[in-house]
Specification:
globular; 4 helices; 121 residues
Amino acid sequence: MPPRYDTLFYDGRCPLCAKEIRTLRKLQRGDLIFADIHEQNAQNAQLPTREELLKRLHLMTWNGEWVIGLPANVRAWSHTPFGWLLKPLLWPVLYPLAKRVYETWADRRFEKKYACSVGPS
């Protein structure tokens, strides 16, 4: 069976994001591709808009499905030996609260870093 690679789109200009990506790169098993949002071609019709990519974590699965937000984070970490630790965040009992925390953090990060400057790089 050919390898199945997921692609994680991340904000390479965010120090916290870059730190997590460095950790993921070290721990992942080799089947996760990392794509800096700021290095993507704005003309690529397959991608969500730059603003959408910056607002929430996006992961494109090996079969072309988009996973966004907290589920994207959990899926990215599933490429490491520690992925099982994050899976409970997707359980129905925990997911609503975990999603709210993630989205609040993501919204504040975006507002602080990009709200007035999103546009062509």
